[in-house]
Write a structure and sequence with these properties.
Belongs to the thioesterase PaaI family. This is 1,4-dihydroxy-2-naphthoyl-CoA hydrolase. Keywords: Hydrolase. It comes from Thalassovita litoralis. With about 150 residues, the protein is α+β, with helices and mostly antiparallel strands. It has a single domain (about 10-140), classed as Thiol Ester Dehydrase, Chain A (Roll). The chain is built from 3 helices and 6 strands; from the N terminus they run ααββαββββ. It has helices spanning about 10-20, 25, 60-75, and strands spanning about 30-35, 40-45, 80-95, 100-110, 115-125, 130-140. It has a 6-stranded antiparallel beta sheet. The N and C termini lie far apart (about 35 Å).
Length: about 150
């Protein structure tokens, strides 16, 4: 029996460095913890992540959720042979935020041979639910090296 779902260790600093130059970095998304069956990240509620009304943009919450599920899915599979791509994501926005940080925790609900389903719970600094999301990933085979 294994104590982790990860096929390779999740090194927080490496994941953050890899995402620094893309949407993750632009939105301030930082992976902060990798447990045996979950990932935790934080994201600021600031000028980069607010809508014009001054509250956290719902689409940015979904970006945090998709980031966590995608990272998780790709660390579950053997990345030399497979990768995971998003197929569907949904989100329920429960409460608004105007400042501080939000925290996302992603856990798998299903880890299949060809699909994965992840649940992502986003909370505020007081651990109150801000957004609940679920994402389905498709597991695809990588092309054989030529």
């Amino acid at each position: 029996m294994t104590d982790t779902i990860w096929s390779t260790p999740v090194v927080v600093e490496q994941v953050n460095a890899f995402g620094a130059g893309c949407a993750n970095g632009h939105l301030g998304i930082e992976l902060i913890e990798a447990g045996p069956d979950y990932l935790k990240a934080r994201m600021p509620v600031d000028h980069r992540t607010k809508q014009p009304a001054g509250i956290l943009h719902g689409g940015v919450s979904v970006a945090l959720a998709e980031t966590l599920a995608s990272i998780g899915g790709n660390f579950v599979v053997d990345r030399t042979k497979q990768s995971c791509v998003g197929q569907e994501i949904n989100a329920n926005h429960i409460r608004s935020e105007t400042e501080g940080w939000v925290y996302g925790v992603a856990r798998p609900l299903h880890l299949g041979r060809r699909s994965q389903v992840w649940e992502i719970r986003i909370t505020n600094e007081q651990d109150k639910l801000v957004c609940m999301s679920r994402m389905t990933l498709t597991v695809i085979d990588r092309p054989a090296p030529q």
